[in-house]
């Protein structure tokens, strides 16, 4: 029978658009292996605090065990997931501290996640990036704003040597972002969140913000973000590309409970205080922009699975030929066959909306927008309908 085209209007996606999404960071202080161990009620209290913050994407630091993070996600509920980096191990073999992300799957789609293992571990005799940053691309449900978030945990402690290490980390992370933004068509919307271990005006701050490369969001009065001293050291820095998507140009420090009883706060929650900011999510201001796929051996899997040992298989020659067929124009019903990183295949059906460089964008049956890097695509085929 004759194939009938199926067209889902773009207005369907906008009907599900959200007003805003909330992004934040929280150092959870040796989460899973600190001296005054947390009990089950503490995990529940932390999960409850995260829900009350109404945060959608949360960068986390000092994760000692994946099991602890899994327990936290379980307490948050089935709508939550996470990715966790692999670096940050201690030299004495007693574990390590890692960084990652939590996100609410009801409101946010994860496009991809990777650990920035290409960043140097040494520079001019200084050991840097003990825990390599984790980068993830997120998209608001319903076809709204999309952006790259990077969570960091810069070198801790005071003193000239540690200050020099933080400065080197900020310089190298800036260099990575600068090169990333030079990629043709690259989405310029980037946020960096985490435990920066420095405050405004510090040497690392000066390196990172020079020539207005990034802008650190500030909370009114610059309240503390750690119980040990009053300087805020947990930061959210944004690039120029995403400034127009800010719902408000300020940081929110969720410290009311902590300030009432710093010792009590630390016993249950952490020695750090979480911070958040809001992005306007209704519209993606650069819908034709793309995100560079993760590098080899850097892919991270969501939901408690181990980090991938290699990037997804690249598109085969046959698959590439299929995806370039003249008939595959925007508006064509397609089936995208994917390599799911576990040597088995899955697929997604939808309407092809655009093929941009190394990415394929489709719109699903419910109006959900999906984007797939070519490195994860086995083939794109026209979907026959009756």
Describe the SSE topology.
Blueprint: H1 11-14, E1 20-31, H2 40-53, E2 57-63, H3 66-76, E3 80-84, E4 98-104, E5 108-115, E6 122-123, E7 126-127, E8 134-140, E9 146-153, H4 160-181, E10 190-195, H5 203-209, E11 214-216, E12 234-239, E13 252-253, H6 256-260, H7 262-268, E14 275-280, H8 317-323, E15 333-339, E16 345-356, E17 359-363, E18 369-373, E19 377-382
Parallel strand pairs: 1-2, 9-10
Antiparallel strand pairs: 1-14, 2-4, 3-4, 5-8, 6-7, 8-9, 10-12, 11-12, 13-14, 15-16, 15-19, 16-17, 17-18
Helix pairs in contact: 2-3, 4-5
CATH class of the largest domain: Alpha Beta
CATH superfamily of the largest domain: Endonuclease/exonuclease/phosphatase
Roughly how many Å apart are the termini?
7 Å
Please estimate the helix content.
10-25%
Largest sheet: 6 strands, mixed
| Poorly predicted ranges | 1-16, 306-326, 340-345
Strand proportion? 25-35%
The H-and-E topology, N to C, reads as: HEHEHEEEEEEEHEHEEEHHEHEEEEE
In short:
The chain is 20% helix and 30% strand. The protein has 8 helices and 19 strands. The chain starts with 10 loop residues before the first helix and ends with a strand.
Describe the structure.
- The structure is a single chain.
- 20% of the residues lie in helices and 30% in strands.
- The protein is globular.
- It starts with 10 loop residues before the first helix and ends with a strand.
- The longest helix is centred in the middle third of the chain and has 22 residues, at 160-181.
- The chain has a six-stranded mixed sheet, covered by helices on one side.
- β17 and β18 form a beta hairpin.
- With 386 residues, the protein is α+β, with helices and mostly antiparallel strands.
- It has two domains: 18-280, 4-Layer Sandwich (Deoxyribonuclease I, Chain A); 312-382, SH3 type barrels, CATH 2.30.30.520.
- The chain has eight helices and 19 strands.
